[in-house]
Structure formats: C-alpha cells, structure tokens
Design brief:
The protein is an alpha+beta fold. It contains 5 helices and 6 strands, in the order H-H-E-E-E-E-E-E-H-H-H. The chain has a single domain, classed as TULIP domain (Bactericidal permeability-increasing protein, domain 1), CATH 3.15.10.30. Helix 1 packs across helix 2 and helix 1 runs parallel beside helix 4. Keywords: Biological rhythms, Signal. Belongs to the TO family. One of its GO terms (biological process) is circadian rhythm.
Length: 247
C-alpha cells in the first residue's frame, strides 16, 4: 500500500531538481517567472529529467529511483491491527504521465495531476491483528502490483524571510489517489498452512478497494512526512531568488 510514495517521489524530485541546483546542468531549461510560463517550463523539464531518474542525477541531488528502497515503516489501524514493513523496494515505472500542472509561486501552491500505468513492489512484512474477517499473526515476503494509478496532488507552503532572503517552507500535501486494480501476495500469513495463506490472499484481492480505503490515512501520513522532510532539506539550503531567478 506504499504505492503513493512512488507515485509522488519521481515527479517531486524532478521539480526539486529543477529548482535546487546552484548551478543548473546544461540540459535544464531555466524557469524565470518574468520571462516564461512557469507551468509549461516545469512540465518541459519533467520530460527532460524522466529518463534520467533510473540512475539518479548526483549533480542535482536526485537519487536513483529504480528501485527506491524504504528501510522501514509502521502502520496501525485503530487498536486492532499493527504492521511493520521493512526494505520496501519500489520499482520506478518506465513511464509516468503528468496530465496537468499548475504552480502559483506567489501563494506557494502546486497542483499536479498524474497517472502511472504500473507499480511493482516487494517487501518483508510482519503483522498482527484483525483485517477484514481474519485474525492474523504472520511475517514473510510481500509482493504488490498496481495498475492504472491516478492521483491529484496539491501542495501548500509559504515564504519565510531569513537574514533578508526569502526561503520556501513546505507545509502540507492533499493527495487524492485512485487505482484501477491491485494484486497482493503476502507469504506465510499462516505459518505451515499454505492453504489458509492462499485463501487469505484471495480474500484480500477480492476486496482490494476496501483495503486501499482502510489503509489510506495511515499510508498518506507516512508519505507526507517523507516528502516534506526531503523537500524541506533542499529548500532550507537555497533562497527563493536562487530557485526562481528574477532576471
């Protein structure tokens, strides 16, 4: 269910890389608010950077995203379900499509509408509690495949003056995700009972939309914390006039 992270990281890394390098690589188009359409400029640069994300772009502080590895995350649903995810490996899709992008630099607001044809992930999990109609207590390998993933993302921030210079401060994100289908396999759900494990996975996949809705709040909280932390780390180093030159 960590697919939201993968959904956002490549696009936001493109936008971060466009803005943050003190000395932009020659393949990047400089986006100057007074002289260009910022929305179109950002979209053009995303297309330039997309094929480079596989191996990462060290000079722009962008890591490799094929795969992206999340060391650990904890998920809790009420008082009845707890799970720990370790070494979540998310394979960057070969392509993602930005259908719409609107940036308001004055209000420090960004809207992105995007879609990803397929996302594949592997992980090690441990869980305990009640999920759907099952009482679970297991650990093992997990696999997930999602197809036709869509999301609308709105990010909010503000400008903060420090020593006479304005800096961007990331506040929050609203994320509206939707996926057409999910296939999930959790191995060893019932230790030494493959038949029960297979039946549980069948139940999960037959109720995939229910699971996605149930896990949304917990997963989005993790995603927001990671993205805000990542982007804040960059924005703290560069003033606004470095990010968007006014000349």
């Amino acid at each position: 269910m960590k697919y939201y992270l993968l959904l956002l990281m490549p696009v936001l890394s493109c936008l971060t890389g466009i803005s943050l390098a003190r000395k932009l690589p020659s393949f990047i188009e400089v986006c100057r608010p007074k002289h260009t359409d910022i929305n179109e400029c950002l979209k053009r640069n995303i297309e330039i950077l997309k094929p480079k994300l596989k191996d990462g772009i060290p000079e722009m502080h962008i890591p490799s995203f094929r795969p992206y590895v999340l060391p650990q995350a904890n998920v809790q649903l009420g008082d009845n379900f707890f799970a720990t995810i370790k070494n979540l490996s998310l394979s960057l899709p070969k392509s993602f499509i930005v259908d719409d992008l609107k940036a308001d630099l004055d209000k420090v607001k960004l809207y992105i509408k995007l879609r990803i044809p397929e996302i594949v992930a592997t992980t090690q999990y441990s869980l305990k509690g009640r999920l759907l109609i099952l009482n679970l207590d297991g650990e093992g390998a997990g696999y997930i495949n999602l197809t036709d993933v869509h999301a609308e993302v709105t990010g909010y921030g503000k400008k903060e003056n420090r020593n006479g210079k304005d800096y961007l401060v990331i506040g929050d994100f609203d994320i509206l995700p939707k996926t057409k289908s999910m296939h999930l396999i959790l191995e060893n759900l019932f230790p030494n009972n493959q038949e029960l494990t297979d039946s549980a996975n069948k139940l999960f996949n037959e109720n995939q939309q229910v699971l996605l809705e149930d896990f949304n709040p917990a997963i989005l909280k993790i995603v927001k914390e990671i993205i805000i932390g990542l982007m804040s780390n960059f924005f703290n180093r560069y003033s606004y006039d470095v990010l968007f030159p006014d000349d």
